[in-house]
Amino acid sequence: MKTKDDFLFTGYEKKLRQLDFDCLPGLDAQIKMAPEIRQQEIKEMGQSKEAIKSSVLFLFYPGKDNQTATVFIQRPDYDGVHGGQISFPGGRYESQDINLANTALRESREEVGIEPGKVEIFGQLSDLYIPPSNFLVRPFLGFYPARPEFTIDPLEVAALVEVEVSAFFNRANNRAMPITMSNGMEIKTPCFSINGHIIWGATAMIISEFVEMNRTLED
Question: pLDDT for 197-206, tens place per residue?
Answer without folding.
Answer: 999 999 999 9
